Amino acid sequence: MSGRVTDDPQLKKELELKVNTLRVEKAELDHLKPDRAVYQRVGNVLFRTDKARVAKTVADKLNAATTQLDQLSGGGASGSGAQR
């Protein structure tokens, strides 16, 4: 096989939930005031960090989850992340 993810409905549902959760997290970060404190979880510890670093981490996770979901769905539409 070429490394494709199996067509598992439960896995697809979990990935869709993860993508939606990350979209909400990204939207909340985008609407924070510039001087607002932002914390990032590392293990079981929260660290205060800057908004740009957390936004980049969330965007990277969102891109990875969206790519994985696209592979699971057949890899067709690259613009499938534009639903709302």
UniProtKB/TrEMBL annotation:
One of its GO terms (cellular component) is prefoldin complex. SUPFAM superfamilies: Prefoldin (SSF46579). InterPro entries: PFD_beta-like (IPR002777), Prefoldin (IPR009053). Signal peptide: none annotated. It comes from the Eukaryota. GO terms for molecular function: unfolded protein binding. Pfam families: Prefoldin_2 (PF01920). GO terms for biological process: protein folding; response to cold. Belongs to the prefoldin subunit beta family. This is Prefoldin subunit.
